């Protein structure tokens, strides 16, 4: 199938826009590759330090040219998604020896749980943790003793941070090994109903706690389709996972077999062999476009609108919000996974999952089939799903037909003709809205503004009975330089209740919503942010705001708007406590939301 004209056009546009930085990046990677395997340049003293604790692997490391795999791990048991990584290093070292290689834990990276910090001061460090992860992985790999890197990470900022590091060390291969989703708990709509009841005072704290614990109940990724699971989709669409590995539950024989196979593949694709696949060659414009297509087809997290540009810049590829909008127009919405539907990722995987979608999208000409991947045969390898028969790992053709059309549908009969992510622009700035879970009759909202400077103030106004009419809730001074751009996920129950009461409501903010944001229209990531004097800082209570998703506009209907003096806010409370004082340099140097809100790139 020939490539869809819009996909080809956007790819060409990205390639042209990126020509300078991409050429410079590839030249740097080529120079690093030309130097040959890294350990050959270390002194005997350097190597002795690196191998001192490696016991039985020491002779192999010191005297042979066997590949040495560096493990960069985000293990901690604060994150259910990362707890399974505790036992991975032993599994990986054993698999490496069997494959004629060695493996060492190069270093750990921090991994915070946004579910713990939602609505808390710690959330103000969340976005910046992506850059800290990239820096930490850079330190781990700076020992320069590795022929390939194996990255262990799943959740929100962890995978993007690891990709930035993988691109920076793009002269060696990068293989990502996931941990998989937890088994299904109570249905997500049940959990959401209890949350809303608690927000209205109709459920007790004990009932809320019981529902939350029944939902988040064991090891593995949270089962809704938020940022963590969107990341896992992305790694398959970009060719950095083994095919079919994203949504296999932790602690299963198939999960372990795929981890072993990831180690074997990492050993096979180093510069020491005949199938060298450095990460810098995989992370090109085709890989990022394929990731964008997957984001739209699955209705994935809006957080990737921040992360993908930052990831791409690390490999010399420049993405723009218009690229997201144009690909969204070309790609149909083919999946309904909570919060866009009732199913969770386990149900999605059982219904055909990523392999069904990749089959469909390739057949429709919506993906670059020739993109380079770790698997060896371009993206066609990702048509296949992993199987375990008689203890032996193999791959077979993935589903050609949906096994549940309430969850996944073919490209010819999708849930919606477009991916549901729209760029918004107008006299309030530039932002995005995700409408895949928003009812069509709410795609246009025009109502008076109510201005807030924190999500707590919104919730206080709601509890005081002040929000009783159609309202555009504006929460400003939430951008990256103001307070680290925390997610405003704790507003979801409040706004949902107002909408369920029959009001026409919307959110406009220079902050973020969670990857699990749902059915209330929300214009997010508005840039320039209020703290930099952006248009949101000139809004006043009562200004009529029009959010028009079909036409991609975000405007205020106030004739004197341009002549107003921007207000300022006292942001001193965001500067200290729970580690925030350590990140002042990040707030001062962070980029704008529309370019990825990056610090290190």
Instruction: Quote the distance from N terminus to C terminus.
Output: 36 Å
Total E-strand runs: 14
For the biggest sheet, the summary is: 8 strands, mixed
Tally of domains: 3
Shape: globular
Report the β-strand fraction as a percent range.
5-15%
Low-confidence stretches: none
Helix/strand structural class:
alpha/beta
Oligomer: single chain
Q: What's the tally of helices?
A: 22
Kindly state the percentage of residues in helix: 25-40%
From the alpha carbons, calculate the radius of gyration and give it in angstroms: 24 Å
The overall average pLDDT, rounded, is 94
Q: Order of strands in the sheet with the most strands? A: 7-8-12-11-10-9-13-14
Describe this entry's structure for a reader:
The chain has 22 helices and 14 strands. It is α/β, with parallel strands linked by helices and 601 residues long. The chain has 3 domains: 359 residues, no CATH class; 34 residues, no CATH class; 175 residues, Glucose Oxidase, domain 1 (3-Layer(bba) Sandwich). The strands form 3 sheets. Strands 7-8-12-11-10-9-13-14 form an 8-stranded mixed β-sheet. Strands 2-1-3-4 form a 4-stranded parallel β-sheet. A two-stranded antiparallel sheet has the order 5-6. α5 crosses α12, α8 runs parallel beside α15 and α9 crosses α21. It is globular, with a radius of gyration of 24 Å. The two termini are 36 Å apart.
């Amino acid at each position: 199938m020939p490539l869809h004209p819009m996909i080809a056009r956007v790819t060409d546009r990205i390639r042209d826009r990126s020509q300078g930085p991409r050429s410079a990046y590839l030249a740097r990677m080529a120079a690093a590759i030309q130097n040959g395997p890294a350990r050959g340049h270390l002194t005997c003293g350097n190597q002795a330090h690196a191998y001192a604790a490696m016991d039985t692997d020491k002779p192999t490391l010191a005297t042979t040219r066997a590949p040495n795999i560096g493990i960069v791990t985000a293990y901690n048991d604060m994150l259910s998604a990362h707890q399974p990584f505790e036992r991975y290093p032993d599994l990986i070292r054993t698999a490496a020896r069997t494959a004629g290689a060695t493996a060492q834990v190069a270093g750990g990276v921090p991994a915070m749980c946004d579910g713990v910090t939602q609505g808390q001061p710690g959330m103000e460090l969340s976005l910046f943790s992506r850059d800290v992860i990239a820096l930490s992985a850079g330190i781990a790999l700076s020992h320069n003793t590795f022929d390939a890197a194996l990255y262990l990470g799943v959740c929100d900022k962890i995978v993007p941070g690891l990709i930035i590091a993988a691109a920076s060390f793009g002269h060696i291969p990068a293989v990502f090994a996931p941990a998989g989703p937890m088994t299904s708990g109570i249905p997500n709509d049940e959990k959401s109903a209890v949350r809303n009841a608690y927000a209205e005072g109709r459920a007790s704290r004990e009932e809320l706690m019981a529902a939350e614990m029944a939902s988040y109940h064991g090891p593995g990724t949270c089962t809704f389709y938020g940022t963590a699971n969107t990341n896992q989709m992305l790694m398959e669409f970009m060719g950095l996972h083994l095919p079919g590995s994203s949504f296999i539950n932790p602690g299963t024989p198939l999960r372990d077999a795929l981890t072993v196979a990831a180690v074997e593949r990492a050993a096979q694709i180093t510069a020491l062999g005949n199938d060298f696949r450095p990460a810098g060659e995989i992370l090109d414009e085709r890989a990022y476009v394929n990731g964008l297509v997957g984001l739209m087809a699955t209705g994935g997290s809006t957080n990737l609108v921040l992360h993908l540009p930052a990831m791409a810049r690390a490999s010399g590829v420049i993405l723009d919000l218009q690229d997201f909008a144009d690909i969204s127009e070309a790609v149909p919405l083919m999946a309904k996974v909570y919060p866009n539907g009732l199913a969770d990722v386990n149900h999605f995987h059982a219904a055909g999952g990523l392999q069904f979608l990749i089959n469909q999208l390739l057949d429709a000409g919506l993906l670059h089939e020739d993109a380079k991947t770790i698997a060896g045969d371009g993206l066609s390898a990702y048509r296949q799903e992993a199987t375990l028969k008689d203890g032996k790992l193999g791959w077979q053709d993935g589903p050609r037909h949906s096994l549940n059309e309430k969850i996944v549908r073919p490209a010819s009969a999708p849930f919606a003709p477009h991916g549901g992510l729209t760029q918004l622009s107008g006299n309030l700035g530039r932002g995005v809205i995700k409408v895949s879970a928003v009812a069509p009759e709410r795609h246009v909202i025009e109502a008076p503004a109510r201005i807030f400077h924190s999500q707590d103030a919104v919730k206080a106004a709601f509890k005081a009975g002040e929000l009783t009419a159609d309202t555009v809730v504006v929460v400003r001074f939430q951008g990256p330089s103001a307070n680290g751009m925390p997610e405003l996920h704790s507003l979801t129950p409040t706004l949902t209740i107002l909408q369920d009461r029959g009001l026409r409501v919307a959110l406009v903010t220079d902050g973020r919503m969670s990857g699990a944001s749902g059915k209330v229209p929300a214009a997010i990531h508005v840039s320039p942010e209020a703290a930099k004097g952006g248009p949101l800082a000139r809004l006043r209570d009562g200004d009529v705001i029009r959010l028009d998703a079909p036409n991609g506009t975000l405007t205020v209907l106030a004739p004197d708007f341009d002549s107003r003096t921007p207000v300022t806010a006292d942001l001193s409370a965001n500067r200290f406590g729970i580690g925030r004082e350590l990140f002042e340099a990040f707030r001062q140097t962070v980029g704008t939301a529309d370019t990825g809100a990056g610090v290190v790139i």
